[in-house]
Amino acid sequence: MTSTAVVLAGGKGTRLHDAFPGIAKAMVPVAGKPVLEHLVTTYSAQGIGRFIFAVGHLSEQITAHFGDGSAWGVEITYIHEPEPLGTAGALHLMGLTEAFWVFYGDTISDINLNRMHAFHQTMSADATLLVHPNDHPYDSDLVACSLDGKVTAVHGKPHAFDLEVRNLVNAALYLMEPSVLSHIPHGIASDFGRDLFPLWASRLSLAAYSSPEYIKDMGKLERHEQVQADIESGLVASRNLALTQRAVFLDRDGVINIDSDLVKHPDEMVLYPDATKSIQALHSAGFVVVVVTNQSVVARGLTDLKGVEAIHARMERLLAEEGAFVDQISFCPHHPDKGYPEEVPAFKIECHCRKPKPGMLLDAASRFNIDCSNSWMVGDSERDILAGQAAGCRTIRVKTGHGLKPSTVVPDAHAAGIWEATTHILAAK
């Protein structure tokens, strides 16, 4: 694995100044030690042995604390920017000739770098961006990508009023090949999110690695307090994908949104009133939340893959408006039965992903290290319950959607709707 990390640690921390006067932003204490020390200890334990700190304001505090890094078993060197060069401009000063990580010095995270590195190699990317959904995508830099993870566009904030894309936010952790250095302007300030990634999306091979692991900046006082609480509760470390995760798999139509019989346009996406608070409660309890949905509208020719993504963008926007998000949306576009007038032959196949087969659940379990025996499937149809059982999950059938249709398949529990299913999950051992 790549063992060199560049850490951008020159911020002034103006929004934290009143609470921590005279302290460099990267040295602000969190749970008993500087935020930058959390970064070093977390990632040196994963094999990063060389850190290059890009420092500026109050840099003497950082150099005095860390020295050459030997106290942490690593090598630390320093690049002092003669003048602020943004998040990207200083990289030319570092003599990088091999792949390197980029971290921000005001961020607390615990990401399994081996998994991200493997994805980067699989994608043969020039740079890989860590992305994730969040509960405020409307004021975040959004990353648009293809279904296989290739970045197609980066939309910096503020967005166009009518922008409606998937909830994938630039999480500010990158893995880069040295070839990208030739695409960074020399001697002038430039920012990855604002200046470079929007251009690189069409000029370079960028990949988006989506993960439910913990990463949050602590640049505001309320965020600092939240990050500290998350460290002390064990939440930060528990979300690292080296550890097995619990998940709730949710069917879409009839569980999260009203099933209008083959949703084929974003305007047909109408959430159930309890969907948002249910997803929020599941996240708060530590579950990874994954949507697994059959979407035969593609095979039937009623919409295409981009159309389904547009529907999901609308769903994510509606959730985010009320402060909720899902960690992943998996959908199956196939349908094996033939004979429909508008059908698309390429999708009229037997597949491993269409429920009642468990393919979507098992793929997500592999991607996020999910223990299915400690997870749940919530659906409104017999096929949802069968897929959950085949994956080894406990199952709940809701009575919304098609939930009142007769079936001989017996779930672990029945529920009136998604909120009752959520309360059952939270009460279970």
Summarize the structure.
The chain has 429 residues and is of the alpha/beta class. The protein has helices at residues 35-44, 59-66, 113-123, 192-203, 221-233, 235-238, 275-284, 305-321, 359-368, 382-391, 418-427; strands at 4-9, 29-30, 33-34, 50-55, 75-80, 100-104, 107-109, 127-132, 142-145, 151-155, 169-176, 206-210, 215-217, 247-250, 288-294, 328-332, 376-379, 394-398, 413-415. It folds into 2 domains: 4-236, Spore Coat Polysaccharide Biosynthesis Protein SpsA, Chain A (Alpha-Beta Complex); 244-427, 3-Layer(aba) Sandwich (Rossmann fold).
Keywords, separated by commas or semicolons:
27% helix, 7-stranded mixed beta sheet, Rossmann fold, 19 strands, alpha/beta, 21% strand
Overview of the molecule:
The protein is 27% helix and 21% strand. It has 429 residues and is α/β, with parallel strands linked by helices. The protein folds into two domains: 4-236, Spore Coat Polysaccharide Biosynthesis Protein SpsA, Chain A (Alpha-Beta Complex); 244-427, Rossmann fold (3-Layer(aba) Sandwich), CATH 3.40.50. A seven-stranded mixed β-sheet has the order 5-4-1-6-11-8-12, with helices on both faces. It has a six-stranded parallel β-sheet with strand order 16-15-14-17-18-19, sandwiched between helices. Helix 7 packs parallel to helix 11. The longest helix has 17 residues, at 305-321. It is globular. The mean pLDDT is 94.
